[in-house]
Specification:
The protein is an alpha/beta fold. It folds into 3 domains: 190 residues; 116 residues, no CATH class; 233 residues, no CATH class. 41% of the residues lie in helices and 17% in strands. The chain has a 6-stranded antiparallel sheet with strand order 2-1-4-5-6-7. It has a 6-stranded mixed sheet with strand order 8-11-12-3-13-14, sandwiched between helices. Strands 16-15-17-22 form a 4-stranded parallel sheet. β13 and β14 form a beta hairpin. α10 packs parallel to α11. The protein starts with a strand and ends with a helix. About 6% of the residues have low confidence. This is AAA family ATPase. Keywords: Endonuclease, Hydrolase, Nuclease. It comes from Paracoccus saliphilus. Pfam families: AAA_15, OLD-like_TOPRIM.
Length: 682
Amino acid sequence: MHIEQIRIENFRLLQDCCLDMREKTTLLVGKNNTGKTSFAVLLERFLEKPDHFTYTDFPIPIREKVLGIDDETNIEELAIRLVLRIAYDETDNLAILSEFMLDLDPTRRHTNILFECCIDKKKLLRVLPDDPKERKKFIENNLSGKFLDIKVYAFDDFGHAEETPYYLAHRDQLEEKDRSGVRALLNFQVIHARRNVASSEDAGRGAKPLSAISTRFFRKRDIEADDDDDDDDDDETTGSGGESIEKLRSMLASIDDQLGEQYAQVFGGFLKSSRDFLELGDLKVVSNIQSQSLIETSSQVIYGETDNFLPEHYSGLGYLNILYLLLQIELCRDDFARRNAPLNLLLIEEPEAHTHPQMQYVFADKIHGLTSKIPNLQALLTTHSSHIVSKSNFEDIRYLSRLSPSQPVTIKNFHTDLSVRYQELGADGAALFQFLKQYLTINSAELFFASKAIFIEGTTERILLPLFIEMHDRENVDETAESGLSSQNISVLEVGANARAFAPFLEFIGVRTLVITDIDTTRAVVSEKTGKTSYPACPVAESSHTSNETLKHFLSAPDPKEEKDFSDWHKRLVEGTASSGEGQIELAYQLAEDGYHARSFEDAFLSINLDKVKARKDTLASLKNRDTLDQFSGDDFYSLTTQILGKKSDFAGSVLYLALVEGESWRVPKYIMDGLKWIHKN
């Protein structure tokens, strides 16, 4: 038995969303302000705090209708809803779930629970002021609690083909249920992102968070030990923990006896005088050490050797956060085991808070093991961490997307929905999808949270791109006064010639992307011996083809067998007029500049910086045949680059060094600068 789907309607940014749940762990990812926190809040509101809804929980697009409510208003269209679709099979114990099963068909494997927060129209209209301004203010300040009607229903049909949802089209088929039945069926626990951890800066300013939660942990175990004694039952929730608590109680009782004897000697004279003065009976001071208070006030979490330890608040926030998380998970695990509900749902908000990347990696790797120990548990994690995403299974990822501030949020099943898009690519779609899954590294996972992306060809561009971005911002100071390109949320990926593998992925997550690549021109050469055609690299002016698969894909190259069509396309490619017609993705490759058309970044850079390269030839790294530079004349930069350039990354590193340290003002190839201007404005 498990929650298969969660549907949300009319709650903040989540106006109409459906989340496909995994049986174990589901990961909710997305940029800021895409509703991850709202998702967590709504679950908690309906499952734990149903009286906490307010006017601000209604999404902005329907607030006008809320403010204009009258006798004719259909309040069902304005209701905040949460629908749980629950799947089960013949092996499950359906004793509790049967309360929500309305159809006795033995072949049925789903039922649904609807939570609904609806405005009590009659009650609200009785007290609304007539003046529009007062009316608006009243609703904004008072639409909560007594003016909202929160109910729970069961219904059977979820995946019907009607355009109107079943729970709206067939209100008479809904069966209202008591909330106690939901609590018996589903145990929901949440670990919020705002965890009470504090660094050494907060030492001595209130309770220590780890010690405080340790007290909570002990208190739960103490209560469970009491319950175990009362029930005389070997409950697995206590086990050896219950025996340890009994030993602690016994030790404290012994200490109480010893302290009592000492108190009698210390307070004896005072107590005798008090008895005589007040005419009281036997007056004593006794010891009564409470185990919970002792843990809370006289214990602390330390690290290091006992004789040479450091206190809790000396730990880094990352360690505190992880320890806090682990204790919280343990508390939740105890609660799940104690209540033994058929469905358990644990939501963890942003487990990466305060932790460095490596620790995020470790936590992501271990969380599945932690949650797998809890029976019948489904875990929901919301995160902004590319490290956690990169350690997760593709099948677990759900992407919250919001293409613009005026549009509602949608929740996409990353694996299922994206695989369909790759299937549409034809024969090589499966291979490209497999490549994408294997390439889900830390860098590529950043795309889930980026506003924009830049794909680059190789190491040289990766080394020099930060310099080029800085130069772009400097040269376009008027346009970048508010937000330079360097301050935008941009992910840079070195993908070589594999940019086309990301095309459906980029479309799927809606990230505008600049692809900086090489034109990589070739020419067709037919072998006299074999008659076979090869395509060796050549200068642009002599070319008839390109080996760049990214350009062919995004610029819709025709089949090379269609010689005339392909020749026309290649001509447009060289001229820069082979438009992709794709507004979300822009291609930047070498075009003619200063009378020369380069084939790669290196000869493009050399052609516009020749004089400076000559002047710096003894300083620039990885140059060979340096004398060739002095003898060079003409415009065959393609051959010159081949003759003088050694290891490209070393050359790029020295170009960067001379710019940053010695202030050399290199020129940036125009195709790159034009591309940076595009990604900055779009």
